[in-house]
Amino acid sequence: MAAPKVLIPMSDYGHDPTETAVPYAAFEKAGYVVEFATENGKAPQCDKKMLEGVTQKLLGATKDAVDAYNEMSTTPGFQHPISWSSPEFNLDSYNLIFLPGGHEKGVRQLIDSPIIHKHLASYFPATKKPSTKSVAAICHGVMVLSETEGANGKSIIHECITTALPTRFEQVAFWGTRAFLGDYYKTYGAGSDNVEESVRKRLDDPTNQFKNSLSMSPFVVQDEKYNYISGRFPADAQLLAEKAIALVNTFLQ
Asked: Which Pfam families has this protein been placed in (predicted)?
């Protein structure tokens, strides 16, 4: 049997290194074929504030995550990603689409991409169980899905159980750093909706569908109807990857 295939779509700049590199390392260890995609095939870069300097030490990636990112960033797949704007690009051959997060404004390139929306609008419905296709998303990566509309005009995850970055976490980070980082922690600028609010607005029944935890312990949510798993922030990245691997391995057995 061929190894499962994973695609990690990324903006040219700004994704969280932990939410990208930790799952990548887990997928590689599991023997998966991992590919990256950017808009025009340009090698991506994760958010430097999370990788170096004072912001890294206070708020950013751990040493292990930085090491994992440095290793990932030198691989041929990362250096030479697929172009998602290519006419030949499609998601059909992948068993898992993994959407990393990150609060740096550059991630809007992925969240707002009409091309990515078009491909996900076709792919996500095909993850309805039983299926050999799946999606995992973390933090702002969930917004890529919530902002993608299907043929019915609703978000493709309108009926799914999901989590995303909790409003309280986002607000603590924003107000705690505003004096020296401005609106860095607000992807769409000060005064814009928090991630949780943006996602909730796209759900049919947000009270029951949006699952939250303010614990620092890893927390992920798995939908029952679709092969879809979500996480909140970097601390969930390893568990999210493990759950995604377990899901893929189950339906490929």
From this structure: ThiJ_like
Q: Supply 243's token pair.
A: 């759950």
| Token output for 173 | 């980070």
Query: Over the stretch 108-156, which tens digit does the pLDDT of each residue have?
Result: 999 999 999 999 999 999 999 999 999 999 999 999 999 999 999 999 9
Give dist(CA 227, CA 22) in Å, integer. 21
Query: Which of left, alpha, beta for 36 (phi over 0: left; psi -120 to 50: alpha)?
Result: beta
Burial category of 180 from C-beta neighbours within 10 Å (exposed 0-12, middle 13-18, buried 19 and up) = exposed
* Residue 12 CB coordination number (10 Å): 17
Judged by DSSP in three states, 128 sits in strand
If one counts every other C-beta atom within 10 angstroms of the C-beta of residue 109, the result is 17
130: CB partners within 8 A, 6+ apart = 251
Range of the domain at 215: 5-252
Q: What angle do CA 219, 107, 144 make, to 5 degrees?
A: 60
Query: Does residue 46 contact residue 14 with C-beta atoms inside 8 Å?
Result: yes
If one counts the domains in the chain, the total is 1
pTM: 0.97
Do the strands 96-99 and 134-138 form a parallel or antiparallel pair, or are they unpaired?
Answer: parallel
Q: How far apart are CA 9 and CA 100, in angstroms?
A: 8
* Domain at 165, CATH number: 3.40.50.880
Question: For residues 31 and 247, is the Cβ–Cβ distance under 8 A?
Answer: no
Q: Return d(Cα 238, Cα 234) in angstroms, integer.
A: 8
Residue pair 137/99 in contact (Cβ under 8 Å)? The answer is yes
Please report where in the chains the tokens 């095909």 appear, as a residue.
126
